[in-house]
Prior knowledge:
single chain, 390 residues, Leucine-rich repeat, LRR (right-handed beta-alpha superhelix), alpha/beta
Amino acid sequence: MMPAMRRHPSxxxxxxxxxxxxxxxxxxxxxxxxxxxxxxxxxxxxVECHGATKQKGDLRLDQRAAxxxxxxxxxxxxLPGKPDASELLRRICLPADDEDVMPPKGExxxxxxxxxxxxxxxxxxxxxEHGDAAIQKLAAALQLPKLAFxxxxxxxxxxxxxxxxxxxxxxxxxxVQPVAADxxxxxxxxxxxREQVTDADLSLLAPLAPVLVWLNLSRTAISDAGxxxxxxxxxxxxxxxxxxxxxxxxxxxxxxxxxxxxxxxxGTQLSDDGLPWLFLLPRLDKLYVWDSKVTVDGARVVRDxxxxxxxxxxxxxxxxMAAAExxxxxxxxxxRPVNDVxxxxxxxxxxxxxxxxxxxxxAFCCQKCKAAFEKDPAKYLGKxxxxxxx
Length: 390
């Protein structure tokens, strides 16, 4: 069975590669080009689970030697010149709901992608010597860029204080880690402690002021009074205070955070009256205010006056939920039989005994009647009593 392939549904970097692979260039007159047409598909949809770091099912699709290893005649992978005998092609062409489809999660390969891979295999599955390097180059382009923060210099005494504060926070139960390997910037997450974290705990953050750039205080018991201590962390770029009791006074106290770019105020008491104070944060460009007291009209004013600020009030959620409810209702209506009486024996129909015929679901009183209808539908269609629809 085809090993499961995991996709990072939330991976923005992979998205660009996936989109590029959705519409592969048309095959050239002299055949499919591996580097420009096949390699992008393999890198975008296969290599994550069948590449250098992971080989599910002992399958590797980023190296020519692995794909065309000796003794491949009995393998399920790629057989040059034999697309119909290549199990890899069969798997990617299966219906989306088949348990063996490749990849098993996310959208299946598009029809143009499937046709291109079929043609590539039919033409001999040419994989040039520089093909491996082409895939490596595509992978390198997806690597996360280094995160750079312009942080103030830290002397020995401050470094020692930071180390002590990190140890204390971790002992308290906080998650403290570097944002990236190439920076001294720190990320502190206290959300797992929930209501155990109060304003008193915020004093533990003070020694980290020169290097603390990301802070998660969501679901904690902090109050507006504690925001003065948060405002004393001038290097903050991201602040998450979702589902806390913070109100307009607390957000007004955050004005000194001149570096703040991201603020999650979901489920807080922030209102339209508190929004103007956030205008004074010069680098803020993402604000989340779902389930707060911010109104759609108030958010619209912000959007009109401060074009750089992306403010998300979740006003599209209700629309999506309504659309989903309509779709569910339509599916239920489609799955409901059109009749209440069996057209074979004129007895009450059992909805579990049905046949989908000509776009309609017809129910029968028993399996024998169902089988009789399947054998000769025309004989019983004239007896079908459709339920009246409003």
